[in-house]
Automatic annotation (TrEMBL):
Highest classification ranks of the organism: Archaea, Methanobacteriati, Methanobacteriota, Stenosarchaea group, Halobacteria
Pfam family, one: Phosphodiest
Annotated organism of origin: Haloarcula vallismortis ATCC 29715
MF annotations from Gene Ontology: hydrolase activity
Protein name: Type I phosphodiesterase/nucleotide pyrophosphatase
Cross-referenced SUPFAM superfamilies: Alkaline phosphatase-like
InterPro entries xref list: Alkaline_phosphatase_core_sf, Phosphodiest/P_Trfase
Length: 514
C-alpha cells in the first residue's frame, strides 16, 4: 500500500498563489497542478483555524463536534471559555486508519493540544500548544511524551518561533525564525514517516498563515512559499508517496475592519458597563504598546515569568476586551446580542430569540463599506451546521466578504476602519491538490468542500467511510474504490485540559483574539 503525506498549508489560497505561479516563481506547484488534480475548497463557517482543522480531520462541520470558534459563548450561564483540543467531541481521520490497522503520525496540528494517544504519534502545534504568555512550550506537546525530547535533540524542533512575529514592521529575525520552523516541519514529517514506516502522516505549516496576515503578498510570504515549493518538488518526485496539499481556509487582502460588538452597541443590541479596561484604553495603555516596548528592551521572557497572569490580563488590547472579559464590559441583563470574531453571533435567551434574530439578520445585511455589503450572506445557525451540537452553536452566522475582518473587541470605540494589524484576512476559499500512485490525474475540479478530504484519504487507504462524515469521496481515482461505510468511533478517551488561559494568551499574541 502507498503511504500518504498530507501537507496542511494554513491559510493558503489560489488568490495568493496564482500570480506567483503564473510568474514562474513557484514552478513545482505549477507542475503539480499540471500533472495531478487540484481544486479550490470551501471551508466551514467561520473560516478560521478553530474549527476548520478539525472540520478537515473529522469530515464534519462544527455542529458535529461542538466547537464553533476559539471561544464557547453561553449567555444563559454568563460564561465565555477558550476552547482546546479536548473540547472537540469527534473521532478523526487517523483514528479510523488506526482502527483498520494502519499507523499514523500527526505533526504540528492545531486543535490537537493537549495531545492524545494515537498509533503512532501526535505533535500538537498551531496557536493552541502553549506554556505561558509570549513563551513557547518546551514539553507536554507530544504523544508519546518522550518524543518532544527526541525532536528537540535531533531537529532543534520548537512549536513556536523565537522571536515571535507581532507586527508588520518585523521583517528580519522574526521572519527567519518562521522559515526555519517551516523547514523543520518538513524534515520531521518525512524523516519520521520513513524511519517508523508510517502509513500516513499529516503535517501543518501553521505559521505560514501568520505571514499572510502580517504581509499578504509581500516578500516575507513569497520567501515562505518558495521554501514550500522546493519541498513540493522533492515530495512529488517520490514514487512511493501520495502527496496531498490542502488548507484550512484561504486569505485575501484586508479592506475593512468591522468591530461587530461596537456596531451592536451602536444599534441597540448591546448595553455597556464601565470596566477598568475602558479606562486604560482611553489613556493609551494596551498590550500591543507594552509588547513592543518589552521586545525592544529584551524583557519579554522576564516579564512573562515575574508578572502574574492575573495582572497581565488586566491590560487591554487596542481593539478592546475579548473572551470572558467581554462579559465584564456589558450589562448582560439588558444585552440582546454578543458576537465572537469572524462569524458567530449569539442571542441572549432572556429575550425573544426569534424576534431579535429576524431584526438582527436584516440589519446586518444592510451593513456596507465603500466596496459594498460586508457580508456575502447572513445565516441562521441551524442552516449552516449539522449534528448533535447545533443547539449549542450561534443563532446567527455572518459570512464575511473576502477582505473583511470581523473583529469582536469591546470598548475600542470604532465600528469600521481600514486595515489595522492584519494585511490579509481569512476567507472560506482554500486549496486542494493531489498526486501519487493511488490518484488518477484529473486536472482542475470544481470547488470542493473541506469535508471531502478525510473520506477521500480513507478511500485511498482502502478504509470504509464513517456514516457521520458529511463529505464525499472525490473523483480522483481511476476506478471507484467502493470502500463502503462503517459505524462512527466515539472519542471518549480524548484528553481534557485546564490550560484555557494559556491558550488564550497565545491566541492574543498572534492576533486571533486581539
Amino acid at each position: 500500500m502507498t503511504k500518504t503525506l498530507v501537507v496542511g498549508l494554513d491559510g493558503a489560497s489560489w488568490e495568493l498563489l496564482d500570480p506567483w505561479i503564473e510568474a514562474g516563481k513557484l514552478p513545482n506547484l505549477a507542475a503539480l497542478r499540471d500533472t495531478g488534480t487540484w481544486a479550490g475548497t470551501r471551508s466551514c463557517l467561520p473560516p478560521v483555524t478553530f474549527p476548520n482543522w478539525k472540520c478537515y480531520s473529522s469530515g464534519k462541520d462544527p455542529g458535529g463536534f461542538g466547537v464553533f470558534w476559539f471561544e464557547n459563548v453561553d449567555l444563559a450561564a454568563g460564561e465565555i471559555n477558550v476552547m482546546n483540543g479536548g473540547d472537540y467531541d469527534t473521532a478523526e481521520l487517523w483514528d479510523y486508519l488506526n482502527d483498520e490497522g494502519q499507523s499514523a503520525g500527526v505533526i504540528n496540528m492545531p486543535t490537537m493540544y493537549p495531545p492524545r494517544d494515537i498509533d503512532d504519534l501526535v505533535v500538537a502545534g498551531g496557536p493552541d500548544a502553549v506554556e505561558g504568555e509570549y513563551r513557547s512550550i518546551s514539553s507536554g506537546y507530544t504523544s508519546p511524551p518522550e518524543l518532544a525530547e527526541e525532536l528537540e535533540n535531533r531537529f532543534k524542533y520548537s512549536v513556536h518561533p523565537d522571536p515571535l512575529l507581532s507586527s508588520n514592521d518585523e521583517r528580519g529575525a522574526e521572519v527567519d525564525a518562521i522559515l526555519d520552523l517551516l523547514e523543520k516541519r518538513f524534515e520531521v514529517a518525512t524523516t519520521l514517516m520513513d524511519e517508523r514506516d508510517l502509513d500516513f502522516v499529516h503535517v501543518t505549516l501553521f505559521y505560514l498563515n501568520v505571514l499572510h496576515h502580517f504581509f499578504w503578498d509581500d516578500e516575507p510570504s513569497l520567501r515562505a512559499w518558495q521554501l514550500v515549493d522546493e519541498w513540493v518538488g522533492r515530495l512529488d518526485d517520490r514514487t512511493d508517496l501520495n502527496l496531498v496539499l490542502m488548507s484550512d481556509h484561504g486569505c485575501d487582502a484586508t479592506q475593512t475592519e468591522f468591530y461587530i460588538n461596537e456596531w451592536l452597541a451602536e444599534n441597540g443590541y448591546q448595553v455597556r458597563d464601565t470596566s477598568v479596561d475602558a479606562v486604560l484604553t482611553r489613556v493609551g495603555l494596551d498590550r500591543e504598546n507594552l509588547l513592543a516596548v518589552a521586545k525592544r528592551a529584551g524583557l519579554v521572557d522576564t516579564l512573562a515569568r515575574v508578572v502574574p497572569e492575573s495582572i497581565q490580563q488586566l491590560v487591554p488590547q487596542k481593539d478592546g476586551v475579548k473572551r470572558d472579559r467581554k462579559l465584564e464590559a456589558i450589562d448582560l441583563e439588558q444585552t440582546k446580542v454578543v458576537a465572537s470574531g469572524q462569524g458567530p453571533v449569539y442571542i441572549n435567551s432572556r429575550f425573544d430569540v426569534e424576534s431579535v434574530r429576524e431584526s438582527l439578520m436584516a440589519d446586518l445585511r444592510e451593513v456596507e463599506d465603500e466596496h459594498g455589503p460586508l457580508f456575502t450572506d447572513v445565516y441562521r445557525g441551524e442552516d449552516v451546521y449539522n449534528g448533535p451540537y447545533v443547539d449549542a452553536g450561534p443563532e446567527v452566522v455572518v459570512d464575511q466578504r473576502p477582505g473583511v475582518h470581523v473583529n469582536d473587541g469591546i470598548g475600542g470605540g470604532t465600528i469600521q476602519s481600514g486595515p489595522d494589524r492584519w494585511a490579509a484576512e481569512n476567507t472560506p476559499y482554500g486549496i486542494f491538490a493531489a498526486s501519487g500512485p493511488d490518484f488518477e490525474p484529473q486536472g482542475e475540479l470544481d470547488r470542493i468542500s473541506i469535508l471531502d478530504i478525510a473520506p477521500t484519504v480513507l478511500a485511498a487507504h482502502g478504509c470504509p467511510v464513517p456514516t457521520d462524515m458529511r463529505g464525499e469521496v472525490l473523483p480522483v481515482f481511476d476506478e471507484d474504490p467502493a470502500v463502503g461505510e462503517r459505524d462512527p468511533l466515539s472519542i471518549e478517551d480524548a484528553v481534557g485540559s485546564d490550560d484555557g488561559d494559556a491558550v488564550e494568551d497565545r491566541l492574543k499574541q498572534l492576533g486571533y483574539m486581539e
